[in-house]
Amino acid sequence: MADPTGPSLDGAGDGVVDVCSLEIERNYEVVPAVICSVCCLFGIIYCFFGYRCFKAVMFLSGLMFGSVVIFLLCHKERVLDTQLSVEASAGIGLGIGLLCGLVTMLVRSVGLFMTGLLLGLLLALAGLLVAQHFHAPTTVWVPLGSLLGTGMLFSVLTLQWQKPFTVLSTAVFGAAVMTACADYFVETLTLALHAYGCLRLAPGPPLCWYSWAVLGVWPVLSAMGVLVQWKLTDEGYSHTEVVVSRRQKRVQLMRIREKEARKRQQTGGQEGTYRRKAPPVKRYAGDLLAPSYLQSLRDRQSGTGASLSSLGGANHSVVDVDDDTRSTAPVVRV
Question: Which pTM value belongs to this model?
Answer without folding.
Answer: 0.62
